[in-house]
Specification:
alpha+beta, Helix Hairpins, Immunoglobulin-like, five-stranded mixed sheet, five-stranded antiparallel sheet, 5 helices, 16 strands, 32% strand, elongated
Length: 282
């Protein structure tokens, strides 16, 4: 499940419906629980539909007691191409329905196999971001500082990090516009992202935030977001991660607690327990 501040939370109103055009995209975007629940609903509805058709002429099923339940289970066997036990079609009507339903079952199996494989093989990042971005001092300058870590036991290759300030501007004509402002990081590229990184934006004379107070940066109209793009070291495919920081996520002062230690045998250990812990300046 995505955390609340990991998405733009955009609600589209009066937009053209695109389910018919982007049906495959919607299915890939669904979570696994929703995908399985949708599949079960479709599966049950199809079987109810064909069970109703069989129920119009229950005598067309061999050894059926004429109940709707018998028709439903016969439909399940036909749709799944399971093979029949004591129930079997014995009329032209039933055999025509069996032909149609078995063909539909083959198509469903093919589509679901492709969909499930696509969802399993879709590469996703496991980048964790600190819950807070710190407004603190670094090398004698005010700075915005946040932390990232790779939660997977692999490497993210050739990672590029972008830190963006999203602000509202009002033109001379009174038009309100959203403007994306790049905030330069001390290090915006990591050849290998295997553990954690602390991203720092110095608020110096070249920063768009220069001479802005903490209160101005924390203004309700300000939002910051991070994008990380790289290559998954296992799949060899491009992956990405995004995170948003809003005014309640900006913390004044402090520093992040250490999460990396080196054992006596030289093994580096990253501890995610204190990942979001902030140590106040003494």
């Amino acid at each position: 499940m995505k955390k609340k501040n990991e998405s733009l939370e955009i609600q589209r109103v009066n937009a053209p419906r695109t389910w018919s055009q982007d049906f495959y995209h919607h299915l890939l975007s669904l979570s696994w629980p929703k995908t399985i629940w949708l599949f079960l609903q479709i599966y049950i509805l199809i079987n109810i539909f064909f069970a109703t058709l069989y129920y119009f002429d229950p005598s067309s099923l061999h050894q059926s007691d004429g109940s709707f339940l018998d028709c439903f289970f016969f439909s399940v066997q036909t749709l799944g191409t399971i093979g029949y036990g004591y129930l079997a079609p014995k009329s032209i009507y039933a055999n025509i329905l069996v032909t149609i339903e078995s063909a539909l079952g083959i198509v469903m199996i093919a589509l679901l196999t492709g969909l499930f494989f696509a969802k399993f093989s879709l590469p996703r990042s496991r980048v964790r971001f600190s819950q807070k971005v710190l407004y603190t001092n670094y090398n004698g300058h005010p700075a915005l500082v946040f932390r990232m870590a790779n939660e997977r036991e692999n490497q993210m290759i050739d990672s590029k990090i972008h830190f963006i300030w999203l602000r509202h501007e009002v033109s001379d004509e009174g038009v309100v516009m959203r403007k994306f402002v790049d905030l330069k990081l001390e290090r915006s590229h990591a050849p290998i992202f295997a553990m954690s990184m602390t991203a720092i934006h110095l608020i110096n004379s070249s920063s768009p935030l220069y001479e802005k107070s903490f209160e101005e940066i924390e203004d309700e109209s300000s939002e910051f977001f991070v994008t990380v793009i790289g290559i998954d070291g296992t799949f060899g495919q491009n992956i990405h991660a995004t995170h948003f920081y809003r005014p309640p996520n900006i913390h004044k002062g402090g520093k992040f607690a250490d999460i990396i230690r080196v054992e006596a045998n030289g093994v580096r250990v990253i501890d995610f327990g204190p990942f979001d812990d902030i140590l106040e300046n003494s």
